[in-house]
Amino acid sequence: MSRPALEVADIFRRHGEAWRQANAGHLSLGQLRVMSAIEACRTAALGGHVERCEECAHTRIAYNSCRNRHCPKCQGRAAAEWLAAREAELLPVPYFHVVFTLPAAIGAIAYQNKAAVYGLLFTAAAEALTMIAADPKHLGAEIGVTAVLHTWGQNLDHHPHVHCIVPGGGFSPDRSRWVRCRPGFFLPVRVLSRLFRRLFLDGLTALHAAGELHFFGELTRLGTASAFRAHLAQLRKTEWVVYAKKPFAGPAQVLAYLARYTHRVAIGNSRLISACADEVRFRWKDYRQPGKPKVMSLATGEFIRRFLMHTLPDGFHRIRYYGFAANGHRSEKLALCRRLLDTRPAPTEPDGDHSADDTPLPCPCCGGRMVIVERFDARQATARLDSS
Predict the structure, then answer these.
(1) Are 59 and 374 in contact (CB under 8 A)?
(2) Is the separation of the CB atoms in 13 and 39 below 8 Å?
(3) Who has the most CB within 10 Å: 67, 173, 233, 270?
């Protein structure tokens, strides 16, 4: 795979240090770690190994990946490994894509309280889906949900939303039969939207009452219960954005979608056009005006700031599972689903013990198999460079 002409890492390496100095004291430790990881990714700073082709003896040096989940270069293989496991779990039914979005008035609160509010976003979306699906007036079944958090829009602004992938049906309360949804229709979006709104705002109010929300700058005024209630009052009357896309054509289409969305970062290297000390230019889609991608120019410092806005808290899970897809009982309940659907057992999941850095790409000369013949750490890598 050829290297993009421009990478986020290039921007960080050229302009990151000056930006860090200009913003000293305003960056979290997590954001600093993300910058350092991306800057070091696939460089001598992380060590690496020497590969040799078994066919033509071509030799190349491969430096190690940082494996940071915010790094644009490290997501491809991470996604492939995750997808290999998910492929074994897909059921032979239509799948739906439902998106739950927080209104802009909640965005600033979410940014200052990422772990609490993003976690609540997951919970409220999943509960809305599972509660409406369990209602006999709608589906009357237990469903499974795979939810993926994105915190950005195409212009890199803060835009928290959850993508949910849901099979079109579930098993009945007595576990005796599979309940299918109507063709091309999963659950009523307006009902989902209003329940999601209520669950989220009730949860947010509970977090505030428990003292688990913190406010800074212009939001300091929301620290009192009365001001917070007033801030949320109007939000209880507006319609929140929940939308369901057309069902996927089949499991292959579900996997293709998941490959694009599960391990995506705020911006991929392929969207970058140019960068200098003054500005960064990149392609973006304006969904309010569908058509060909537009080009956006941001001051270099603003580009870095927006990218780092989407740094997740340490240990925060950006992919979560609910209903019969929940981790604690997934195997047992998926086996029940397959039995009710009269389909064969899931294939054995592939062995994922090997490291992505230990799987060489084919030889660029003859396509032969590359094998690792030597490993070296960062100190040895520096010595190699000094002697070359």
Answers:
(1) no
(2) yes
(3) 67
- Cα gap 292→59, rounded to integer Å: 42
Instruction: Return d(Cα 345, Cα 381) in angstroms, integer.
Output: 48
Question: For residue 353, what pLDDT is reported?
Answer: 47
Using CA atoms, how far apart are residues 298 and 262, in angstroms rounded to an integer?
26
d(C-alpha 240, C-alpha 256), whole Å: 28
Cα–Cα dist 195/177, whole Å: 27
**Cβ atoms of residues 358 and 372 within 8 Å:** yes
pTM > 0.85: yes or no: yes
**Tokens for 329?**
């009982």
Residue listed under structure tokens 């369990």? 134
Taking only Cα atoms into account, the Rg of the chain, rounded to an integer number of angstroms, comes to 24
Contact 165, 97 (CB under 8 A): yes
Query: In what side-by-side order are the strands of the sheet with 272-275?
Result: 272-275, 279-284, 294-299
Write the pLDDT tens digit of every residue in 66-119.
999 999 998 877 777 788 778 888 899 999 999 999 999 999 999 999 999 999
